[in-house]
């Protein structure tokens, strides 16, 4: 069977409302993380800062 799209889903509890975060996006449309997905802290770092 063939699947279209990316890899695995990452599910975790939403820190704001307790619903499920799917790859950082909350399933609850009333939650702030539904419209502005949660970002990992590691992704926000500038990779050029560590090259010094």
Structure, explained:
The chain has a domain at 9-40. It is built from 2 helices and 3 strands; from the N terminus they run βββαα. The protein has helices at 32-35, 41-44, and strands at residues 11-13, 20-22, 25-26. Strands 1-2-3 form a 3-stranded antiparallel sheet. 6% of the residues are buried.
Please work out how many helical segments DSSP would assign.
Answer: 2
End-to-end distance, in Å? 47 Å
Gyration radius over CA: 15 Å
Global outline? globular
Low-confidence stretches: 43-47
Main structural class: alpha+beta
Neighbour order of strands in the largest sheet: 1-2-3
Oligomer: single chain
Q: Major β-sheet, in short?
A: 3 strands, antiparallel
Q: Helices and strands, in N-to-C order? A: EEEHH
Q: TL;DR of this structure?
A:
The chain has helices at residues 32-35, 41-44; strands at residues 11-13, 20-22, 25-26. With 52 residues, the protein is an alpha+beta fold. The longest helix has 4 residues, at 32-35.
């Amino acid at each position: 069977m063939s699947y279209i799209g990316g890899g695995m889903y990452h599910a975790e509890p939403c820190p704001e409302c307790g619903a499920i975060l799917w790859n950082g996006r909350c399933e609850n449309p009333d939650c702030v993380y539904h419209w502005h997905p949660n970002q990992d802290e590691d992704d926000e770092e500038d990779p050029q800062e560590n090259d010094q």
